[in-house]
């Protein structure tokens, strides 16, 4: 019970944990990629900066977003969609860095989804208090491809429900370097992120960054 006090295993848990049929949590999977990943992330953000998008209902999202890849996910008063152009810069989104692609492919393969080629990477930035309400990812054309979700920076509580909005979500703590791969039977399950607790991460400071890789088209 107190082993964590002595050997630092308090938050380690099993390295791989099934969280639903078709969904697996790969703890620390980012580690071998981290050295190349963070500079590539910062370069992408420089080209297409974070912004708080509007929902179709007219609310501003608490999570700031940008994208890289051939297409990016956007929301505004007219709805949710993927677009090849960043509406803020008027330019194409930054190309998907090789290290992003490699990480996403390897994680998908590890989870049993070989041949995953994402064309979109949504980059989410959570500052303390930011949250993502329960939703389904359903703006992609082909639900047979999985989603690969990478957590960086401050830890967050990931809420993972079921096929109906009313299904009571389970809670998973996602830490820097964790990857969730998600597809098959749970591809359309409701999920969200609880309000981010304040903290200071050694590499990223007072924020959490989530990369969500999808095959949108
Ligand atoms: C987040 N993630 O972790 C939000 N969606 O910041 C998602 O909305 C998400 O992690 C689909 C699949 C995996 C995810
Ligand atoms: Fe989602």
Describe the protein's architecture and organization:
By secondary structure, this protein is α+β, with helices and mostly antiparallel strands. The chain has one domain: Sandwich (Jelly Rolls). It contains three helices and 13 strands. The strands form three sheets. Strands 1-2-11-8-13-6-3 form a seven-stranded antiparallel sheet, with helices on one face. The protein has a four-stranded antiparallel sheet with strand order 7-12-9-10, with no helix packed on it. A two-stranded antiparallel sheet has the order 4-5. A hairpin with a 2-residue loop joins strand 4 and strand 5 (79-83). The longest helix is centred in the first third of the chain and has 14 residues, at 34-47. The N and C termini lie far apart (48 Å). Bound molecules: N-[(3-hydroxypyridin-2-yl)carbonyl]glycine and fe (iii) ion.
Blueprint of the fold:
Elements: H1 3-7, E1 16-20, E2 23-26, H2 34-47, E3 64-69, E4 72-76, E5 79-83, H3 98-110, E6 120-126, E7 132-135, E8 147-153, E9 156-160, E10 170-174, E11 179-182, E12 191-193, E13 208-214
Brief rundown of the structure:
By secondary structure, this protein is α+β, with helices and mostly antiparallel strands.
CATH hierarchy: architecture: Sandwich
Q: Please give the CATH class.
A: Mainly Beta
Structural class call reads alpha+beta
- Distance from first to last alpha carbon: 48 Å
| Small molecules in complex | N-[(3-hydroxypyridin-2-yl)carbonyl]glycine, fe (iii) ion
CATH topology: Jelly Rolls
Annotated CATH homologous superfamily: Alpha-ketoglutarate-dependent dioxygenase AlkB-like
Supply Rg: 17 Å
Number of strands: 13
């Amino acid at each position: 019970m107190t082993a964590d006090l002595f050997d630092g295993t308090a938050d380690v848990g099993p390295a791989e944990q099934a969280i639903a049929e078709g969904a697996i949590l790969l703890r620390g999977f980012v580690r071998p990629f981290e050295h190349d990943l963070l500079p590539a992330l910062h370069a992408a953000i420089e080209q297409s900066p974070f912004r708080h998008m509007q929902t179709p209902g007219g609310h501003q999202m608490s999570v700031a977003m940008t994208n890289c890849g051939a297409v990016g996910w956007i929301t505004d008063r007219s709805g949710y969609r993927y677009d090849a152009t960043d509406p803020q810069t008027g330019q194409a989104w930054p190309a998907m860095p090789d290290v992003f692609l490699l990480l996403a492919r390897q994680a998908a393969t590890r989870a049993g989804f070989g041949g995953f080629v994402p064309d979109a990477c949504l980059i989410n930035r959570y500052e303390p208090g930011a949250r993502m309400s329960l939703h389904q990812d359903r703006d992609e054309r082909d639900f047979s491809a999985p989603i690969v979700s990478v957590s960086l920076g401050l830890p967050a509580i990931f809420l993972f429900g079921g096929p109906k909005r009313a299904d009571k979500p389970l809670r998973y703590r996602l830490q820097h370097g964790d990857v969730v791969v998600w597809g098959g039977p749970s591809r359309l399950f409701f999920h969200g992120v609880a309000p981010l607790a304040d903290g200071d991460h050694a590499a990223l400071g007072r924020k959490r960054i989530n990369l969500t890789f999808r095959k949108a088209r």
